[in-house]
Amino acid sequence: MEVALDTEDLAGSGLRLEIDGAVATITLIRPERRNAQTPAMWRALARIGDTLPVGIRVVVVRGEGPSFSSGIDLRAFTPEGVPGEDAPLPADAAPEEIDRTIAGYQRGFTWLRRPAIVSIAAVRGHAIGAGFQLALACDLRIVADDASFCMKEPALGLVPDLTGTKPLVDTVGLARALEMCLTVRTVPAEEARELGIAQAVVPGDELDDAVRDLTAALLQVDAGAAAATKSLLQQAPGNTLDEQAATERRAQIDRLRALGESR
Ligand code: ACO
Q: How far apart are the C-alpha atoms of 187 and 195, rounded to whole Å?
């Protein structure tokens, strides 16, 4: 779907998008609120996904200031709400409308798994609630040594609903995910690395360089092979060995055909 992206519109939603060759960087730009998230931000993320130029291979998601993201803007739960924003979930809405509304928000997160790109969350400071889920929506998480993760939703009487529960369970297993979510505890950077949530922990002043180095390494690999391999890996957990072996064969046939056509 082609939807025009307006830089000012994006900024009004708390986001900045920068494109440099094959790399798109999305920055949450509300440091004064620790990059708290709003429905407008989730809709803007979905628009970025809808309009991402062909040829983008790496998407970096980062936050300006000391925190990656403090999660949903808590003013949404006050009678005044967030100035200029609708309530995230209208209290008197029918279940079908709530379902449709949340599905719209989730679209801002799901596209980050698209096979054609590798998404990297560069996390410093807090990643709480929706912030943790945004980091989990990315394929990889490179984190500063002051990073911390907390799935806070149950403490507010809610469930995590921005597509974070599946990657969390896939990564740490059901028992650990349950323990983390239901105690609402904060997981520090080093533990996040041990659990496989973070792929690397680096000193804060080296975070940007670490993300740049990883990006450069990812761009070394042929784009078609990278997309096909990501797709293959994504299918592996849901397949039996026989199914996955067959999927590998089909993917290789496609690769060989693509390589033949490019000669
Ligand atoms: N929503 C709205 N405003 C926020 C949020 C938020 N989620 N997080 C921080 N802010 C605001 C603070 O109110 C404060 O505003 P002020 O300067 O007008 O007082 C400013 O951002 C800075 O926050 P501090 O608390 O002073 O910053 P600090 O670095 O000490 O702490 C932290 C950061 C840990 C993120 C803390 O602000 C916090 O706990 N925030 C709430 C986190 C939360 O419960 N989020 C909801 C998760 S559930 C979900 O996402 C669905």
A: 10
Atom of ligand 1 nearest to the CA of 133: 50
> For residue 112, what is the domain's CATH number?
3.90.226.10
State which residues form the domain around 241. 223-262
- Edge-to-edge order in the sheet of strand 126-128: 126-128, 148-150, 187-188
Indicate whether 1 belongs to any domain: no
Decide: pTM greater than 0.85: yes
Q: Is the CB of 134 under 6 A from ligand 1?
A: no
Residue 56 sits in the same domain as residue 184: yes
Query: 75 CB less than 6 Å from ligand 1?
Result: yes
CB atoms within 10 A of CB 170: 13
Ligand 1 centroid distance, CA of 192 (Å) = 21
My answer on whether 85 and 106 are in the same domain is: yes
CA of 70 to the centre of ligand 1 (A): 6
State the DSSP code for 52.
P
Q: Are residues 123 and 46 in the same domain?
A: yes
> What is the tens place of the pLDDT at every residue in 199-255?
999 999 999 999 999 999 999 999 999 999 999 999 999 999 999 999 999 999 999
Q: What is the number of domains present in the chain?
A: 2
pLDDT, tens digit, for every residue of 203-216? 999 999 999 999 99
88 lines ligand 1 (CB under 6 A): no
Single-letter amino acid code for the residue at 178: L
